Each structure stands twice: as C-alpha cells, then as structure tokens.
C-alpha cells in the first residue's frame, strides 16, 4: 500500500538522518602544523616526536621561527591522524614522547589539547612550549584539559636580551640545553622530566631530511644558527687551510 511504502521510506530517511547526526557528533579536531620531525633528541629529554604548530601573535623579537607567525602556514591535520603517526613512530623506535612547539601552541588550544590527550593515552611523555606565562595560560578557556594531559610546560616568551650564553666546558647554565632565554621556566605536572639533569648540557642542533627530501635544521636556537653559518660558509681548500710561511 502507498502508506506502507511511505512508512518504509520514512524509516529509511530516519536512519540516514540519525547516521548523519552521529557523524556530526564525532567532530574532527584539526591542528594547523607547519613542520614535524618524527625522531629527534634536540627538542627535549630523550627521543622525541616534535610538532611545530602554525601561528603566533606574540611575534617575539629575535624569534628563531618567524616563518611560523602566519596562522595559515603549513598543513591542517586531523589530530587523530597525528596521534596515529606518533604511535607508529613509537612502535619502531625508542620514542619517549612528544614535544609541541611553534608558533604558539596555545593559539590552537583545542587541537593542541586533543593531541596531548591522545599521546598521553599511549603512555608517552608530553612537553609543550608556550610563549605565555603559566598565569596567562591558565586564563585561557580549555587550558585545564591541556594541563591535565602534559608532563612539563615550558613557559615564557623568548627574550633576545636575556638569551642564554653558549655553555662552556666548565659551565652549563641550569636550563640552557633546550630553553632559549633565562626568563623561561619549567613547570612539571608529573615527575617524568623533573630531574634537573635532563635539562642541562650542551646546546644541540640536528639536520633532518624529510621523506620528500626537504632539509631542515632544528634544536637550540644558538646551536642552529651556528650550524647554519657553518653550512653557508664556502668550503676551504687544502691551500686555504695551509698558510704560506711569511717571508
């Protein structure tokens, strides 16, 4: 009967609408990412997966990543895909955790918190660098979720006038291994990275070649600058290295 057929169509429509509503409720949380390094020892204690997010309105003078100020830089990633990428890397290496930098991670607070949640659920460590102070960060809606998922927060803007000097063989400032200036502070929510010895040592830099062949340098700003100066210097020949005796 027409009514019976109509009833079946209505039920089918109800199922389609219900399925669509379910998909909408499973929202896709995205994060704009400028760069990733899947395995590094230059962005925090141990072997780490590093993610640089896009966008920073702080624009600290002397910032080592001014190309990340623009919020539309990079690529939009579904956070679930990022978490899976971290999980895959952990399955084939001695990955200890993730470091999230920028840019300013708290300007994409929802996506950053989602990423922290997902990685923490894998049993991996989470470190976040922010140019805000902890007091400023606590005022941002949703910060509590991020805080509950991380192990360590590095807070404070980079101040060129207070940049750490290059350590010497006899003197390593307490936090100079990974932090840029002495106004920045460590806040450990868990004891995972609380040992001060983890944050001392030589300022390191690494060169990485991406799967697409892109070459990038990262690590401590001072060490990266030194590395890039070396790479840009013309190679010396044997004659250049051997000075002729004075006559």
Question: Could you walk me through the main structural features you see in this protein, from its secondary elements to its overall organization?
Answer:
It is a single chain. This protein has 247 residues and is of the alpha/beta class. It has a single domain (28-204), classed as Aldolase class I (TIM Barrel, Alpha-Beta Barrel). Helix content is 32%, strand content 20%. The protein has seven helices and nine strands. The chain has a seven-stranded mixed β-sheet with strand order 3-1-2-4-5-6-7, covered by helices on one side. A hairpin with a 7-residue loop joins strand 1 (30-40) and strand 2 (48-53). The longest helix is centred in the N-terminal third of the chain and has 24 residues, at 2-25. It is globular.
Into which percentage range does the β-strand content fall? 15-25%
In whole angstroms, how far apart are the ends?
115 Å
The CATH topology, please?
TIM Barrel
**CATH homologous superfamily annotation:** Aldolase class I
Low-confidence stretches: 1-25, 241-247
Which class do the helix and strand fractions yield? Answer: alpha/beta
Q: How many β-strand runs?
A: 9
Percent of residues in helices comes to: 25-40%
Topology as a string of helices (H) and strands (E):
HEEEHEHEHHEEEEHH
């Amino acid at each position: 009967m027409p009514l019976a057929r109509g009833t079946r169509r209505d039920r089918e429509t109800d199922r389609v609408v219900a399925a669509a509503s379910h998909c909408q409720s499973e929202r896709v949380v995205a994060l704009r990412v400028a760069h990733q390094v899947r395995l590094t020892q230059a962005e925090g204690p141990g072997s780490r997966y590093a993610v640089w997010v896009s966008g920073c309105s702080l624009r600290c003078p002397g910032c080592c990543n001014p190309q990340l100020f623009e919020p539309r830089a990079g690529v939009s990633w579904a956070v679930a895909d990022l978490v899976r990428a971290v999980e895959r890397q952990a399955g084939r290496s001695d990955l200890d955790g993730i470091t999230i930098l920028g840019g300013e991670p708290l300007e994409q607070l929802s996506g950053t918190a989602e990423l922290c949640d997902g990685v923490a659920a894998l049993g991996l460590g989470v470190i976040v660098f922010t140019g805000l102070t902890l007091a400023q960060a606590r005022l941002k809606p949703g910060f509590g979720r991020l805080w509950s998922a991380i192990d360590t927060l590095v807070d404070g803007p980079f101040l060129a006038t207070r940049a750490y000097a290059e350590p010497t063989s006899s003197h390593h400032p307490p936090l100079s291994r990974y932090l840029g200036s002495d106004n920045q502070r460590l806040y450990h929510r868990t004891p995972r990275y609380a040992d001060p010895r983890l944050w001392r040592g030589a300022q390191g830099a690494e060169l990485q070649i991406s799967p697409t062949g892109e070459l990038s340098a990262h690590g401590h700003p001072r060490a990266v600058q030194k590395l890039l100066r070396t790479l840009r210097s013309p190679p010396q020949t044997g004659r250049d290295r051997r000075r002729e005796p004075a006559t």
